[in-house]
Amino acid sequence: MSAAGSQLQSPNHVQSLDVDPLAGRRIFVTGGTSGLGRALVRAVHARGARVGFVARTAAAVESVARALPGSVGIVGDVAEKTAIHRIALQATGRLGGLDVLINNASSLGPVPLAPLADTECEALEQALATNLVGPFRLTRALLGALAASAREGTGAVVLNVSSDAAVQPYPGWGAYGASKAGLRHLSEIWDQELRELGIRVLSVDPGDMDTPLHALAAPEADRGTLKDPAVAAEEVLGAIVSALAALGASHLSGAKGT
Ligand SMILES: NC(=O)c1ccc[n+]([C@@H]2O[C@H](COP(=O)([O-])OP(=O)(O)OC[C@H]3O[C@@H](n4cnc5c(N)ncnc54)[C@H](OP(=O)(O)O)[C@@H]3O)[C@@H](O)[C@H]2O)c1
Prior knowledge:
This protein is of the alpha/beta class and 258 residues long. Helix content is 43%, strand content 12%.
């Protein structure tokens, strides 16, 4: 990830060492009820952020929201064109704006994984809708809120969760790999185009994690060799904190110390 451009707001706030840089920030995570997404929601909630998340299964959304008082759980499908504006409006309305968007929800495409010759067009479309077009639509729908945060000096970051399958052409991972390659490329172009607004767009590969998605894709894998999603969440948050610092984002008034 490259450093923020020189045209961005220069640091003009003294960063207090005892305040968590995520405290008080408004953070929205897609796919926040399982694996990496749930670990991210838990971690930012523990660090004093105002967190919202979306997933399709209502019972799971309610369960995570109940366990994390003050968090905002939204039931919705990021692959559904007609759901995006409702999700974006609920997120910004209930969080009071937005500083950080994490596009994490993901579809493997065909399950079990299949060579391209055996991949139904609908499975390819599902992977693209969830992993590429959904994050594009949601980012567009939230641009106004993110730009407002950037103008206010609290920083604005979009982090798109990538994969090594975005760069390695693994046989059997065609639909997923193509969608993640597209998302990675889109992230880099977004990042160039939004820098003048003071918004950074990052793409981060969390590594192989012990999650339901991994179990679905590679049921034979030795789970002992896989990363705990809580560890990956801290790495992802480290990238966001670095980007906020490079933007010169101020700590938020009223943020609690840690
Ligand atoms: N696990 C790995 O080893 C690994 C490796 C590299 C990259 N990644 C990436 O890391 C991210 C997280 O993966 P994970 O392994 O934590 O996945 P996971 O455990 O399967 O969790 C996926 C989450 O996304 C939600 N979701 C799925 N489709 C959705 C949709 N259309 N709209 C809204 N929410 C949706 C799921 O809830 P519902 O089903 O209820 O909607 C769930 O909360 C993904 O972007 C994945 O590609 C994972």
